[in-house]
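FORM 12-B: Structure-to-Sequence Request
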């Protein structure tokens, strides 16, 4: 079951992280995981044309956008289905999650449950802004990966987590997505080795 237990400090690892740091691949990554039900909303334009907007409706009533077609399959075939969806997140100049994150992959959710969307990432600390309560996570392309250009995500975190961060260090982060404020809020940080670390 995919779950994230919010963490306010580095004292105790979430159960699914305990002892797993050294086993994680040394690649850069950033993903938002969300479980919800495929829904569609139809909007009629002034000219009479009807437009259908597909959404992933979350348990709390919030939603993520979905495309009309994914890998050749119309999502209209999945209306009402529970899916686990992977999004590739980006943040804007204000440090907020872009309104239309890139859809990575989706599959039936089965028994998996998430009370709210989960964020996971691994990369280098690009900046630390303790006054604003945020820091940057630099995500670079991996050898043989699909990503072509690096990007930096702005992540929000309590001061207790920011104190231990240093620019350039490799970190694994985990947290939650606050859709109302469009913030990626980190609840767990730990050091991480990356493939381009000096030998």
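FORM 12-B RESPONSE
SEQUENCE OUT:
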């Amino acid at each position: 079951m995919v779950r994230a237990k919010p963490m306010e400090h580095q004292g105790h690892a979430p159960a699914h992280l305990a002892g797993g740091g050294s086993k994680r691949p040394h690649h850069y990554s950033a993903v938002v995981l969300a479980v919800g039900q495929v829904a569609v909303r139809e909007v009629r334009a002034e000219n009479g044309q009807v437009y259908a907007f597909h959404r992933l409706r979350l348990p709390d009533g919030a939603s993520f956008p979905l495309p009309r077609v994914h890998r050749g399959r119309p999502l209209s075939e999945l209306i009402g289905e529970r899916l686990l969806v992977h999004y590739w997140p980006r943040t804007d100049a204000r440090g907020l999650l872009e309104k239309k994150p890139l859809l990575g992959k989706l599959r039936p959710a089965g028994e998996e449950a998430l009370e709210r969307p989960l964020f996971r990432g691994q990369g280098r600390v690009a900046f630390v802004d303790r006054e604003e309560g945020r820091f940057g996570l630099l995500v670079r392309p991996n050898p043989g990966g699909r990503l072509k250009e690096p990007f930096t995500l702005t992540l929000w975190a309590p001061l207790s987590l920011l104190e231990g961060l240093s620019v350039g260090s490799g970190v694994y982060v985990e947290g939650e997505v606050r859709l109302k404020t469009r913030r990626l809020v980190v609840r767990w940080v730990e050091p991480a080795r990356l493939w381009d670390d000096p030998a």
